[in-house]
Amino acid sequence: QFALYPNPSSANLNIISDREIGAWQIEDWTGKCVLKGKESNHSTTISIDKLASGQYTLKVDNQTKIFLKY
């Protein structure tokens, strides 16, 4: 399980997980990967300020959550 906040966001997205995050990726509404990374911690902050405004999907370890960038 993981949580992300704030949602919606304009600059940074925080991820907190009950275990190591591992690989993550952000996809736009077409399914195109626009950001990806790998973390060895239980929490991280991702800068999303360069993304266009819209709806995105964050995938972490076979789980997905939708967030809005404004």
Number of strands: 7
Gyration radius (Cα, Å) is 11 Å
Question: Approximately how much helix is present in the residues?
Answer: under 10%
Shape, please? globular
| End-to-end C-alpha gap | 25 Å
Poorly predicted regions: none
Order of helices and strands: EEEEEEE
- Biggest β-sheet description: 4 strands, antiparallel
Strand order of the largest sheet: 4-3-6-7
Beta-strand percent range? over 45%
Derived from helix and strand composition plus strand pairing, the structural class reads mainly beta
Molecular structure report:
The chain is mainly β and 70 residues long. It is built from no helices and 7 strands. The strands form 2 sheets. The protein has a 4-stranded antiparallel beta sheet with strand order 4-3-6-7, with no helix packed on it. A 3-stranded antiparallel beta sheet has the order 1-2-5, with no helix packed on it. β3 and β4 (33-39) form a beta hairpin. The radius of gyration is 11 Å and the shape is globular. The N and C termini lie far apart (25 Å). The mean pLDDT is 96.
